Amino acid sequence: MNNKRILVVDNEQYIQEVAKICLETVAGWEVVTASSGKEGIDKAETYQVDAILLDVMMPGMDGIATFEKLQANPVTKEIPVILLTAKIQASDRRRYSQLGMVTAIAKPFNPLELAGQVATALGWNLDQ
């Protein structure tokens, strides 16, 4: 079993639940969830997560603003961030990459492929 801890930040409860079930079942990772950018930042600081899956479009603080706050915080700036977004044109991918995000995964995602996509993006081996 992998002892990775992933934070899923998404304002949609359904997305949180699907991601949590898939990542725990397929990869054996521990998953922490948050429903807003502020809650995500708090949990990233508290739980010392190995990676963050971050929704782009959220009310209040969106994913980009959340990412910028994570980057400005010495406790969370080294945590790799993968965006979850329905908006994933080539120009968006370039912008996200320039900001320092690992990659973006399109929503809706295939639940059975999510762990593999995350592992590939981060260079993790699912069989460890």
Automatic annotation (TrEMBL):
Record key words, sorted: Phosphoprotein
Residues bearing the modification 4-aspartylphosphate: D55
Record-linked Gene3D superfamilies: 3.40.50.2300
Domain Response regulatory: 5-122
Cytoplasm in keyword set: no
This protein's name: Response regulator
Species of origin: Anabaena subtropica FACHB-260
Lineage: Bacteria, Bacillati, Cyanobacteriota, Cyanophyceae, Nostocales
